[in-house]
Amino acid sequence: MALVAVLWMLAALSGAALGLSAWVRSEARLRQADVARLNATAAAQAALVHVLAAHPWGGGSPPARQRWTVTVLDTPVQIDWSTAQAAIDINRAPQDLLQAVLAHAGGLPSDAAARWAAAIVQTRADPALSGRPAYDAVEDLLTRPGLPFPVWMAVQSLLTVDSDDPALDPQAVDDSLLIVLAQGDAGRAAAWARARSMQTDGDLSTIPAPWIRQTPGNRWKAVAHVQTEDGTFQVTWMLVQGAPMADRSPWRLLRQTVRWVPSG
After folding, report:
1. What does each C-alpha distance from 6 to 2, 9, 128, 202 come to in angstroms?
2. Which of 17-21, 79-83, 90-94 has the highest mean pLDDT?
3. pTM for this structure?
4. Distance (Å, rounded) from C-alpha 44 to C-alpha 262?
C-alpha cells in the first residue's frame, strides 16, 4: 500500500510540474506578445511624428489622401493619410447619408436602413445633450439606438465621431465608401475608383450636394500600420491643423486610438 501511495504522489507531482511548465510557457508567450505590441505602438507613434515633421506642406493643405512607408529601427511602418472627411461623422451626417451607409455597406433593406438612420438622428436631437455630441465613439451606436452587432461590424470602419463635418471628401474616402456615395451603383463606384487611380476627379454630379465637402477642412487622420507575428497594430491620430508658427508645430492631437487586428 505504501508503494501505491508513493506512486500516486509521484503521479500527482508530475502532473503539477507539467501544469506549471505549461503555465510558464503560456505566461512567457503572453509577455512576449505584450512586448511586441508595445514596441509596435512605439514604432507607429515615432513614424507618425516623423511624417508630421518631414511633411509640413508649407503651411498649406496636405493632400486629401496619401500613403508613405517609414522605417523605425528596422521596423517598416505604413502610414495612411487622409482628411477627416474620409469617414461619415455620426454626430453630423444627414439622415439620408446614414441610411445609405447602412443599406449599401451594412446590408440592411432600404426600409430597415431608413428606420435605423432616423433613430440615430433622433438620438442626436435629445434635449438632454445640451449641445454636446450624442456620440463619443462609434461603438456608442451599439447602445444608442442599439444597432445590431453584425450591421455595426460591417459599417464601423466607415464611420467617425471626429470629422466635425456632415459631408465627405470623395477624394479621401476609402474605396469601400464609394459604393455608398454611388447609392449602390457598383459600376459608378468602380468608375470613380479608376478615375482616382489616375489622379482625376471623375463625374461626381450624381452625388447629393449635401454629402460632399467643397472646401478643405482642418482635420486630418493618420493611421500607422505595424505588422507583428500575430497580426497588425494600428495607431490612429486624429489631428487638427492650425496656423503655421515659427516656434511650434501647427498640429494638435485630438484623439489617439490603438487597435490590434489579429492575422487570419
Report:
1. 6, 5, 72, 83
2. 90-94
3. 0.77
4. 17
